[in-house]
Each structure stands twice: as structure tokens, then as C-alpha cells.
Specification:
By secondary structure, the protein is α+β, with helices and mostly antiparallel strands. It folds into two domains: 215 residues, Glutathione S-transferase Yfyf (Class Pi), Chain A, domain 2; 269 residues, Jelly Rolls, CATH 2.60.120. The chain is built from 14 helices and 19 strands. The strands form four sheets. A six-stranded mixed β-sheet has the order 8-17-12-19-9-10. Helix 1 runs antiparallel to helix 6. It starts with a strand and ends with a strand.
Length: 488
């Protein structure tokens, strides 16, 4: 019997427990309890927890834990995680002090802001300024205590995340919507926005909070994306200095505002064959992103094994990769050095065409191409954040069912030693766009850029980076895209 966690994912203490259990990699079975429907008061739940609160845990022994911090302390001991919850008596007592402070002082103060600015509006009521004014002096006093502690360390109890960070952070997990004046406390602001909100366990569990309590935060955004005009002269790009380079029809000359939908609420419905893209968990062992040679030597084999499991391909060839960051934005397309370092592509495009993909197989595997191309072949890009979550210039995918073949146009790519082809797209009001805000380094977006099968499945998915106007002070995006061919 596995531990059962009864919780509503959106509440402060439930988010605390779920984020902490994910951090600890503690196995559990989730049982949904709708807090706003008062299901925690149902007899089916009060027979375990007479306090009628969530979360609570029913252990494999049959014992019940009804306090969120107690659940985390138990799980940390079970996992023997000495970093998250040290066994040293002094260090443990220090963390316990912060857990008690969070429960007795910090949580109650932040909860007032949450009720006034989030819960009341959700229920159709107005915040009461008098309530906030009365609470403000206590909140500032507590925030100063925490800010002073965080001036000493990266995290509350040192240089690593502990249960103290998970517990104390949970009360401000909607700090923007709670209208908390974090700007007055630079160490506190740095800790929650740059450290805690970059933790995978925090980010993945935070999505349910945003969905339930802050639906406008990531639901839909409007952004300008760069389509290409349909002209008599086809679009071209030269990747080296050539006399014709100044005479071409450059792609991306038709910017249009579109609406882009947060795909996380329905992330499990997207598949490569139906939609041309999907999101998968991928926790790479390799993370030395500054060593180009090591990426090929150590990450490529991980990607091969991952795609074989994910797609069912018999063989996977990784043939290229690019690290994209704004730091390369001024790098010229004709710069033929360090071509694996580029800026995010702000162009609606697909990386291959019906003709260029088979041609690429013949270029890479000339002796095997005839045999390989006699069976199904797909090109799959593995798009992965590196170093931290993506806040700036996220990737958007165009729904396949909304982008018929007549919207695609060939873009001719002129290299010194070969020519290539991409697809670019003309604008259509029927296009539907999706993105995955704050995607983490332990997740990847798989993009199908070519499929030889013509049986109705997705063959080409158009995509582009875009500027997310609603993200304040975003960290510079750093991402890696790995180009692969899957043979079936």
C-alpha cells in the first residue's frame, strides 16, 4: 500500500506538500478533494481527518497525518534526504524553527492578502482595503525578518533547498496576485522569483495553482508573430556572403497579432502523430552546456534512447544541435563560425519540406538512404530549456488542423556547400496557437518537422518564438534544440 495524499492542488498547504514530495521524489497516490466544494468536510474524508482540513496523508501503515509540515517531515525521513531535512540536531532544529514560524506567523499574514485579492474576487466580492491596511505592519515586520535571513544565504537554511523553503515559500506562491510588496525586500524577491520559482518541483505543482486561482495569468496571450508574404518571388536566406544576398525576398515580412493559448491544462492530449508536437519529461544526466563537444558525446546517446522509447523508432540518428539565447541576437546569419550558437527564431516556419527531408537523409547516410527511405522516416526536433525555466521568448506551436498545406510556402536556404528548404507560412485568421509557459529544464517539447507517412497523421508542425508581453523582467531564455531522424 502506498501513501495516499488527500488534497486540492491549488491551496497553499496542498501546494506546499505536493511540491515538497516532488522535491523528495517521494512516491504517493493523489486523491482529489475539492476545497471550494467543501469536500474535506464529507464523512468519507472526516473519518480519516476529523479536523476537516486538507491536505492529509493516509500512510501505508494506516496511520494518518493531518498537518502539512508533518507530512513533509515524515516523507523526508522516509527518503533519508539529509539535504532537504538534515539529521544534524542543530540544523534540524533551525529548520523546525522556520516551519513553526511559517505556521504561526507567516502563513496567517499572507493568507489575508490571498483572501482579499484572490479568493474574494473569485467569489464575486471586493477586497477590503481596511483589512489590508490593518495587516500591513505585521506583514512588513515578518518580511524584514525573512529578508535579513536571505541576505546571509541563497536559501533560508543555507545553499540548498530545504523543507523550510518549501513551507515558507508556499504562503506567497501567488505573490503577484496577492499584491505583496516584494520589491521593498530584494533578498526575499530574489529568493522566490529567481530561486524557488526555478525549482522543477515548485514549477510543476504551481501550474495547478495558476489554473485554479489565477486563470488570467497564463490562459491566453496576444503576441505578434512573423508570417511571410506570398509574393511572386519566393523567400530566400543566404548563410554566407554572396552578391545575391541583398536581392532576396526575406521571410518574416508579414507580422500579425495572434492569440496563443496555454497548453498546460490539456498537455496530455497533445501527441506527435495527432498534433505534430507533445511535451515529455526528460531529466538528462548531462548538464555541462558550455562544453560543445561533450553535448554530442554525452547528451546525444541519452536523446537516442529517449526517442526510441517515446516514438517506437528502431533507429534514431542525432545529427545536429543549436543552443539559442538572446546573447547571440547580433550574430550575423553569414557568420559561418560556431553555427550551433544562434538566437531564438522569431519566424513562423517548419524546418523541412517534403523534398528537403529525404534529401537530408541522402546527404547524411548516402549508402543506406535507399533502404531507409523505403520505410517510414520522421524528423523530430527535441526542444529543451537549459539552466532555468523559460520566461523570455517561449516557443509557440501552430495547431496542425488549423494550418492546411496551402498555408505553407517554401523558403530556400543557401549554404556555401549545399541548398536546403524550409517551410514558412502565410497568415490565416483560422490559425490556432499553443505554448507551454515556464517550461522547465526537465521537460522537452518534441516537434515533428517531417513525416514520410501520408495517412492523415501530422506531417509538419509550424512553430516560432515570440515575445511574451505579460512576463515582467524575464530571465534570458537559454534553450537547446537537438535535430534527429527516427527510422521505423
Amino acid at each position: 500500500m502506498v501513501t495516499k495524499i488527500y488534497a486540492d492542488k491549488c491551496t497553499v498547504n496542498c501546494h506546499k506538500v505536493l511540491a515538497g514530495l516532488d522535491l523528495l521524489e517521494y512516491p504517493y497516490e493523489f486523491v482529489s478533494v475539492d476545497y471550494f466544494k467543501s469536500e474535506q468536510k464529507d464523512p468519507a474524508n472526516t473519518r480519516f481527518n476529523p479536523f476537516a482540513t486538507v491536505p492529509f496523508a493516509v500512510l501505508d501503515s494506516g496511520d494518518v497525518l493531518t498537518e502539512s509540515n508533518a507530512i513533509l517531515m515524515y516523507a523526508a525521513d522516509q527518503q533519508k534526504n539529509d539535504q532537504v531535512y538534515p539529521k544534524d540536531p542543530v540544523k534540524r532544529a533551525q529548520i523546525n524553527s522556520w516551519l513553526l514560524w511559517e505556521t504561526s506567523a507567516w502563513f496567517p499574514s499572507n493568507y489575508i492578502y490571498l483572501v482579499e485579492y484572490i479568493v474574494k474576487p473569485l467569489l464575486g466580492a471586493e477586497p477590503d482595503p481596511a483589512v489590508i491596511a490593518a495587516e500591513a505592519p505585521r506583514w512588513h515586520r515578518l518580511a524584514k525578518i525573512l529578508d535579513d535571513q536571505l541576505a546571509k544565504n541563497k536559501f533560508i537554511a543555507g545553499e540548498h533547498v530545504t523543507l523550510a523553503d518549501i513551507a515558507v515559500g508556499s504562503g506567497i506562491h501567488l505573490h503577484e496576485h496577492q499584491k505583496l510588496p516584494l520589491g521593498e525586500y530584494k533578498n526575499l524577491q530574489r529568493w522566490i522569483t529567481q530561486d524557488m520559482e526555478q525549482e522543477k518541483s515548485w514549477t510543476s505543482t504551481q501550474r495547478d495553482v495558476d489554473k485554479a486561482l489565477a486563470p488570467g495569468k497564463f490562459g491566453r496571450v496576444k503576441a505578434s508573430v512573423n508570417y511571410t508574404k506570398e509574393l511572386e518571388q519566393p523567400p530566400e536566406i543566404y548563410f554566407y556572403d554572396h552578391e545575391n544576398a541583398s536581392k532576396v525576398h526575406e521571410p518574416g515580412d508579414s507580422p500579425n497579432e495572434v492569440e496563443i493559448t496555454d497548453g498546460w491544462p490539456i498537455v496530455d492530449t497533445f501527441t506527435l502523430d495527432k498534433d505534430g508536437f507533445e511535451v515529455k519529461g526528460f531529466k538528462a544526466k548531462f548538464n555541462n552546456w558550455d562544453d560543445e563537444g561533450q553535448i554530442a558525446n554525452h547528451l546525444y546517446p541519452e536523446v537516442v534512447d529517449f526517442l526510441k522509447r517515446t516514438t517506437g523508432a528502431k533507429r534514431v540518428l542525432v545529427f545536429d544541435h543549436t543552443i539559442r539565447t538572446k546573447a547571440n541576437v547580433n550574430k550575423s546569419l553569414t557568420d559561418e563560425k560556431a553555427t550551433s550558437q544562434r538566437a531564438p527564431v522569431m519566424l513562423v516556419h517548419c524546418d523541412y519540406t517534403s523534398e528537403s527531408a529525404p534529401k537530408r537523409v541522402r546527404q547524411l547516410l548516402p549508402n543506406e538512404a535507399d533502404d531507409l527511405l523505403s520505410r517510414r522516416v520522421t524528423f523530430v526536433n527535441v526542444w529543451k530549456p537549459i539552466k532555468h525555466i523559460v520566461e523570455e521568448k517561449p516557443l509557440a506551436m501552430l495547431a496542425v488542423e488549423s494550418s492546411p498545406p496551402e498555408d505553407f510556402m517554401k523558403l530556400y536556404l543557401r549554404y556555401r556547400d549545399r541548398d536546403g528548404e524550409n517551410y514558412v507560412l502565410k497568415h490565416s485568421d483560422k490559425h490556432k496557437w499553443y505554448y507551454f509557459p515556464r517550461i522547465t529544464p526537465d521537460e522537452v517539447i518534441l516537434l515533428k518537422t517531417y513525416d514520410s507517412e501520408q495517412d492523415g497523421r501530422a506531417r509538419f508542425v509550424a512553430h516560432t518564438a515570440f515575445d511574451h508581453a505579460e512576463t515582467e523582467n524575464p530571465r534570458t531564455r537559454e534553450s537547446l534544440e537537438i535535430r534527429t531522424i527516427c527510422f521505423f
